[in-house]
Design a protein that fits this description.
By secondary structure, the protein is α/β, with parallel strands linked by helices. It contains eleven helices and eight strands.
Length: about 270
Amino acid sequence: MTTLAVAVIGTDHDGLPLARRAAEIGTLAGVDAEVVVLPEPVDAARVERLPERYRVVYLTRTDPRRAHEVGERAAERDQRLVVTDQDGIAAALCAAALTHLRTVERSPDVARVVVAGDGHLPGLVPLLMIAGMYDLVAWQDAHAAAFPWERAVQGADVVIDLRPGPDAAAQTARIALDRPEGSVLRPVDAVWADHVVAGVLRVALACPPGSMHVELDMLRTVAVAIAATTPPPGHGRLAAATVTDLVAAAVRRTIDPRLAELRSVDDLEGA
């Protein structure tokens, strides 16, 4: 039986919530998932030494920069696919930004987007750029003295605040009071992040080991697919299962347009 490894940073007392996390993602993806607790810091070498029965690795609760490095190394060496929490959050936030711009009839290529704390999600700014949002400002707390946050967001069509903590959340919540609904985003607004991860995992297990990796173009295609299918405000909400299917189809389309309609390993083997 093919097994998906959920590789995490944690200790023994983390076992129950991590097992629950594996069960949630496994259910969404329709795959078997096991928890693998790796000692901190998780690095590429430790992931490479996992038993071969683990065809795919999902990194959760891992430092964003370290998770990014592990995924990049796996792709460079054509090893097993590594997908991270950050991949899901980045694609979901990109989809939310595109959805808002479509709602207000603002073209992404002329929209101004301000991102605070991009180091907490290293792949987001490049993803926004290849999704057509070229007027990007990356703001940090260190800029506050010369360029306050409130000033940085003036005239922005979309504001994405990735900074952790209640102070940042409160500061951005105040900004959101005077802005259109959906124009100010935080990681909590990445509502489809788990479904992005699940869709990627579903396709990865149907592909030969090492043949597929998470890339920006894949995440862009996923974000565009979600945004294009999201109903306008007040017209309902996408069903969770629909989003996972959308993501899987978008991932297949990135690999090969002929695979876009395939839904399972059996479909792939019969194609």
